[in-house]
Design a protein that fits this description.
- This protein has 328 residues and is α/β, with parallel strands linked by helices.
- The chain has one domain: Alpha-Beta Barrel (TIM Barrel).
- The protein is 39% helix and 19% strand.
- The chain is built from eleven helices and twelve strands.
- α3 (98-109) links the parallel β4 (75-80) and β5.
- The chain binds ligand PBG.
- Ligand PBG binds next to α6.
Length: 328
């Protein structure tokens, strides 16, 4: 008997065999859809750097929210593009800002859909940095107060979950304290805990006009060379009261995702970011890849690595694909 007894191919022979032994499965409940809210009325404009994604005005943002809910996507995450930017990003905590109004509109029309908000200042500051700038550096502790105000303003509008993406030290604790002080102890925090200074955010920064006007974000976002530091960042955020953590970007950081999940055993998510979306779209437009297979394979990889859910521009579409497969 020289041939091995075990033949792994025995379990790969038919569709049902493969289904029976599959270790990982995608479901519509695995996704969060990002939505971009802009000033104005009746706006649905395709984003040049994210083909297939749109800028929505408050009066129309309920349309994609409804479609998400119908497809079984449990949550959306909102990003705002304000009509005015200033040095400290004060529009971020304007109770009548685009995001705040969009939260109210979605909660009114699609109450069961979870609304997550990105809490950051870079879309709102004239210089494009994620906080208040002092001597050409982002001032950490001064920024905490601004972030806390933004988070409370989102909670007041009805956000279910706030997601700080700024990478200031101590922001989770500051936001938790501010939320609790205002009676929002039920509003959860999804921390962008390990967020790297990445070139994969390029298309997003075009979409929200948030590229830094000087310098870069390496003074606050993480160095792509570091893995152990990510564990430390996650540990700190959990200690400060984060309910869930996120790793960002996605596919290039699955090692980080896996070790964070294995180490902490807490709700862990990943952001399949704009550059990853743009790369797939660009290759698909040239006919170089099978778009649907590439998207589903990418999303499956997040789950296999340990993600409980994935923030992805494909959320709505992927959920609809999964529903069609089930109908068959
Ligand atoms: C805000 C923020 C960014 C992204 C999410 N929140 C941009 C950045 O940090 O420059 C990126 C999302 C994406 O690329 O899809 N700080």
């Amino acid at each position: 008997m020289s041939f091995p007894i075990e033949r792994p191919r025995r379990l790969r022979r038919t569709e049902n065999l493969r289904r029976l032994v599959s270790e990982t499965r995608l479901s519509t409940s695995d996704f969060v859809q990002p939505l971009f809210v802009v000033p104005g009325n009746g706006v649905k404009n395709e984003i040049s750097s994210l083909p297939g994604q749109f800028h929505w005005s408050v009066d129309r943002v309920v349309e994609p929210a409804q479609r998400c809910s119908q497809a079984g996507v449990p949550a959306v995450i909102l990003f705002g593009i304000p009509s005015r930017k200033d040095e400290i990003g004060s529009a971020a905590y304007d109770d009548n800002g685009e995001v705040q109004l969009a939260i109210r509109a979605i909660k009114r029309e699609v109450p069961e859909l979870l609304v997550i908000t990105d809490v950051c200042l870079c879309e709102y500051t004239s210089h494009g940095h994620c906080g208040a700038v002092c001597n050409s550096e982002v001032a950490n502790d001064q920024t905490l107060e601004l972030l806390a105000r933004a988070a409370v303003s989102h909670a007041r509008a009805g956000a279910d979950i706030v997601a700080p993406s700024d990478m200031m030290d101590g922001r989770i604790g500051a936001i938790r304290q501010a939320l609790d002080a205002e009676g929002f102890e039920q509003v959860a925090i999804l921390s962008y805990a390990a967020k790297y200074a990445s070139a994969f955010y390029g298309p997003f920064r075009i979409a929200v006009d948030s590229a830094p006007q000087f310098g870069d974000r390496r003074g606050y976002q993480m160095d792509p060379a570091n893995a152990e530091e990510a564990l430390r960042e996650v540990e700190l955020d959990l200690a400060e009261g984060a309910d869930m953590v996120m790793i960002k970007p996605g596919i290039a950081y699955l090692d980080i995702l896996q070790s964070v999940k294995q180490r902490f055993r807490r709700v862990t998510s990943a952001y399949h970011v704009s550059g990853e979306y743009a790369m797939i779209e660009a290759a698909a437009a040239r006919g170089w890849v099978d778009r649907k297979r590439l998207v589903l394979e990418s999303l499956l990889a997040f789950k296999r690595a340990g993600a409980d859910f994935v923030l992805t521009y494909y959320a709505m579409e992927a959920a609809e694909w999964l529903n069609q497969e089930q109908d068959r």
